[in-house]
Design a protein that fits this description.
Mean pLDDT: 93
Oligomer: single chain
Largest sheet: 7 strands, mixed
Order of helices and strands: EHEHEEHEEHEHH
Number of helices: 6
Distance between the termini: 15 Å
Length: about 200
């Protein structure tokens, strides 16, 4: 694929997932303040990914480039769990998740890059949902994990691809979605766009 791909995220996990399917994106981190008027997880992640993609696309001077943006949240009991502010909040989040199932939503937007200031000719968003089941955890296990650095930059305060894998009893849906980017569905969308 010779098309210029731009990832509007500084997430090393998202970059690795794209590399896994043969895409080597440029990284241009969006500087939008993450605010949305929506409350449903699906709409929240789609809206935030759209904001990030549009902010980066507005500065691109390449009509054929594709900008990819994503946003991930964890939800349980109607609450959206973003990234923890500190280790104490991480521990609280893990206590809420342990021994139960929760859902991970990732919203993805792709935008065809545009001449600076123009409206893109192609823009599409989708949201993917994966159910994640967590084994019961002792307070010692919760504190041990929460006090590490791993949960600090992750929605819901855990990384399924890291040490927290020891506490995952199963998932229903796309594993890569939980890591932060449903690359299979994304690739199909890019392919459809390029062939369309």
């Amino acid at each position: 694929m010779n098309t210029r791909i731009i990832l509007a995220s500084g997430s090393p996990r998202r970059k690795e997932l794209l590399a896994q399917i043969g895409l080597k994106p440029e990284i241009i981190v969006s500087d939008v303040e993450e605010q949305t008027a929506f409350s449903s997880p699906e709409k929240v992640v789609k809206d935030l990914s759209m904001q990030k993609a549009m902010a980066v696309a507005a500065g691109i001077d390449d009509n054929n480039a594709i900008v990819i943006a994503a946003d991930t949240v964890v939800t349980i009991d109607g609450r959206i769990l973003g990234k923890p502010a500190d280790h104490e909040e991480a521990a609280e989040m893990i206590r809420t998740l342990q021994g139960r199932a929760h859902e991970v939503f990732t919203g993805v937007t792709i935008v065809r890059g545009c001449r600076k200031g123009d409206i893109p000719t192609f823009r599409e968003s989708f949201a993917e949902c994966t159910a994640v089941h967590v084994f019961p955890m002792s307070e010692e296990e919760i504190r041990g994990y929460a006090d590490s650095e791993e949960p600090m930059d992750k929605a819901g305060a855990y990384g399924i691809q890291g040490a927290f894998a020891a506490y995952i009893s199963g998932i229903e849906g796309d594993y890569n979605n939980v890591v932060g980017l449903p690359v299979g569905r994304l690739y199909q969308l890019i392919k459809r766009y390029l062939n369309g």
